[in-house]
User: What shape does this take?
Amino acid sequence: MKDYTYPYPWKGLSGTAEEMRFLAARFAEMSAREQHLVEGASQLQSIDTAADLIDLTEQLDCFAFYYGAADDGKLGDYIAKYRENATYAQLPFFDFARWGKDVREQHGGVYVSGGFVEQISPSRQIYDGENLSQMTGGNWSVKLKLASRYRPDGVWLKLPDHEIHTVEPDEAAVALGELGVDNLSHTILLESKCCLDNITITMEQYDDLDRLIQDGSNLGYVLEEQGQGMPCFEAHLRAAMELENCTRLDHALDISQNLACFDFIPEPQQRERYGRHLARQRGVVNPDSPAALYFDYEAYCKAEIERLGLKPCAQGYIARNDREFIFEFSSPPRQEQGLSLQG
Assistant: This one.
């Protein structure tokens, strides 16, 4: 096992030109938290080729990072506070060093420059040498490159940040630590990216970085939940954004919460599954009845396109219906005032 600190010396690995370009782009935009994960994961997995490293960077969620847990004592303290929810009254009486040592030996993790990394789930082969175009560069909604007076070159913060749910330090905490500040007000935004290519993010749209990070995380939660299992959720969302000419993050969030305002039928290859969902939702056919075996769901979708007067879009067919659109994140479009001709 070799002990590599970030950045991993990927340029010395054997690989194709395309694989090297992918890794160059991936490492250039790797978040501060991901850097520590790669530092540890590369010691816990065998990395012999560029393909191995691409596979690893696509599965960083198989590893956990304990930020600030730089030795056995701090690891024990971290576990007590964040994993076991120990009370302030209990904390003075724990043997943190022994607790941390036991966890390290039992879990087989490693200490890295920013804390402790362990593998929490098995990794598998995702990249097979032929499907590079399908690699995502990790799941994310928004990426922000932030700088401070201590790090004018900046570090990347990848959203969503899950600290609000897990109570453990996550992307924002690690980024602030790397920047040497304890508040976002002491940082400036150098660059921003959204996983939805129609969205452009600027600070002119936001009062402060806190709200931008909140919206970026909310988009991440939306994409993770996928409409709580709604078939073709992302296609429906992208079609609705296309119809609404959506270019703002806050507007995209509102659209994601109001998809019922848009009648939608996906492309033909997805209609069998979507038709089953639609027919079940509307009570057109009982999915457990014998009739369900003979119901043509694709034909049902095609009939709905005609009945609802849907218009073609990149994701299928869509139209706005008469349901009320609720604005929670963005502002309603301004209505033009009519001219009054009075004598």
In short: The CA atoms of residues 1 and 43 lie 6 Å apart.
